């Protein structure tokens, strides 16, 4: 592993952990709160690329599984991987990989700009995570799938804001040659 990639991965891991310290917003009608941490997952894919983004997020989830209270709300431990948020958590490394893959493709083909990257984030960082989260709610919480999918609508405004902010940050970092 290159020194820059290792250092950038460690910084990204720290950023994702810090985002978990920001209070989540409970919705009441669904056992999953609105969190900022998923924006860190999006950024990991963009900044680190598919390989390092994936492994950084897997490392983050391993730390959470070991019991470190690094998930939003100070949660951690194996129990979160069999609870209502399980589908979202399992989606995180997949999303980081796909965002990283698409970002690398955009860079390689000289198409790395705001709107193409926003589409990538909305597809893999919002839609994919929300769909897998709904499937997780269906399996773990026995919530009917149509109801679980409908509840994802509550996350869309915040997810769009996080996506736009994440892409704006990525554009700034790309100009400074910080993206791997």
TrEMBL record:
It is found in: Cell membrane. GO terms for molecular function: biotin transmembrane transporter activity. It comes from the Bacteria. Its main location: membrane. It is a multi-pass membrane protein. Belongs to the BioY family. This is Biotin transporter. It comes from Leuconostoc litchii. The lineage of its organism: Bacteria, Bacillati, Bacillota, Bacilli, Lactobacillales.
